[in-house]
Amino acid sequence: MAVRKQQNREIENAFNMLCYLYDEIKGRKFKTFTLDGINNLDSLYAAIVSRWCAALAKQGLYKEYVVQENEELTSPKGQINIQESITRQTRSRGTLICSYDELSEDIYINHILKGTLQYLLFNSNVDEKVKVEVKKALQMFNGVGYVDINLIHWKTIKYNNNNMTYKHLIELCKTMLDEQKACKNGILTDDQRMYILFKKQIRKWFRETYSDEDNTVEIVDAPYERMEDEPEFELKTSKSQRMIAIRNDRCALLICVRLQDEKLQQDSTLGRRHAEELVRHCRDYKDTYRVKVFGCIVYVNIDKRKLNLQPITVNAFNDYMIGETTVDIYDQWRFVENKLKDCYKYFIERENNRAHKVNNKKIRK
User: pTM for this one?
Assistant: First the structure.
């Protein structure tokens, strides 16, 4: 029973992360959604995708005009192909060959959703109780064809005002399918999948919390070939390390989220090398924006047995102040949030307060 309880806690954390990343999961369509019978990440993704697909189908699947060519019709419409009608001798049957445009839900973006649902239905990692919901969602796509998930051209998908409701669902399907493929190839574990999800949540939290009229929050891509001892799964699942940059007129803070793995814990010099590497990015950022730059490494602990309570530490590296803190992926988010706030308080807020004091002194003089 103890193992079961811990599993459910992990699934609950993953669900909360997905809720934070996708507002739709917090909406009305998921009002009756429960985590009962969901025991692994694959089942969680399957349950969310099937519920989301079913909700879209109930509202009405997105339709586009599709060209129907050389159809044999008793009631002609569109363009009549006289030559083809003569060749097939259709007049004797009281029909003509026509080509016309028809508004249809049998389109590529719906093919992707149906292909994903079919894949989940035959995925051995998905719980049987969840597969019942997948089957129900599939029945709502009866008039739609499907595409092999290995042949999906994700980059060709185009969004407009009419199909924008699909964007996050398609994004979630791609993430899920990419991760499951990586798991089958031995590249990813479930803990590492949780870490990737957690990084996305942290990036979104910083953007939502500190983007205002004073601060600009942006993502800075750092190629992995410049990173020091990055875990192998990071190199194979992402093209770059996406750092968070918080910048105002006086200063900037570069935040790098990294995995606290066994290698880091065993090699006492690796943490320093990570800090020195972040200094290089701080220097490049300073050259670009001409402001004072700080750096902070947020290590993510995925070991459930080791809860980290240490506060942020700060050291000087080549005239740059670099902070280091550790957050626990399975901890309650409010405690994680407090540590992330410390990153901002120690650097940006402290620098702002220092600048205000200097200005006040000048005014008094």
Answer: 0.84
